[in-house]
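Lecture 7 notes: from sequence to structure.
We start with the chain below.
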Amino acid sequence: MHEELIEIMGKHVQGEIVNQINNLDTKYYSIIVDSTPDLTHVDQLVIVVRYCYNGKPCERFLTFLPIENHSSTTLFNKIQQVLGEQKLSLESIRGQSYDNAPNMKRSEKGLQALLKNINRYADYVPCAAHSLNLVGEKAVSTLPEVVDYFGILQELYVFFSGSPRRWGILNTQGNLHFSLKSLSVTRWPAHYEAVRAIKNGYLGILQTLKHIFEDSEEKPECKRDAKNLYHKLVKLEYAIFTFVWEEVLDISTKQVRNAKPLVLMYLKVIFCYHLCFHLLKSSEKIQPIGLHTESDAKGLCDDITSSYSDASKLIVTRTFSDGTSGIISLRGADKFRIEVLYQLYEC
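Predicted structure tokens for the same chain:
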């Protein structure tokens, strides 16, 4: 009975959306298409329509349906079938937006090309949020220190979430304001949520790890893992990374959430320009923060080490204004700032 009622309501909503699009004052619309597996591992294709109604832009979920594969032909046939069933004309499409996957964006055999063959006015606009997501992923994978940092965040989540007992200890004794989050391969904002949870619960997490590896009743392998995570998190570099990455991810995540696919090509160019301009301006504000976050990082917890763990030298050759050159030896804060933080900002 409940499923019947939901189906009736769904068809009524779909009908209202179609009526709004087919209104004489509307007529034209754009589509947004993506797919993802659900909890039962069935790949679901999602179709969203964007149109203008009563002078205001509307974005409406139209339907989702299972797909067998991700070939451009399969996706095109599914879209054509759904739009035909809903009596929406392919010729009225004025924009199409997908992610940057080759099967979607290729100019010859991609999904956008197949639709363009039928309707030359259906301009393709790659998803701005997905493009920015790829930039973020590239920045994370550039430096080994950054890869290591996010690897530890994921290890921390796996360690606590793998045991209801450890998760309970963390939430009762750690007094966390935000629950630990897992990283995501496809959702860049998940990195921000994970870092924010660590920063706001740094002291509680360290205290919980210490409690676990000092508990005589804990299993040896559990005590070992807790101790290894504890000794990694008390390093000054990781505490600094937590401050720096929260600031960087806060800015980029807001841009991802605010990014909207646009149907007109010139608007897309303007939008991307302003997006990049805003990020560059924001990064200029972040760079000075990286120079004094050491004191903030040490303030997270008394257990944070007061010095940098890497005592090796960084040898830098410099050419001075008078034409002479010299070798500068850097350690500690200077080495970490030049070798890691400055490289991160350039990403």
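Points to note: DSSP finds 13 helices and seven strands in the chain. Residues 259-275, 282-291 have pLDDT under 50 and may be disordered.
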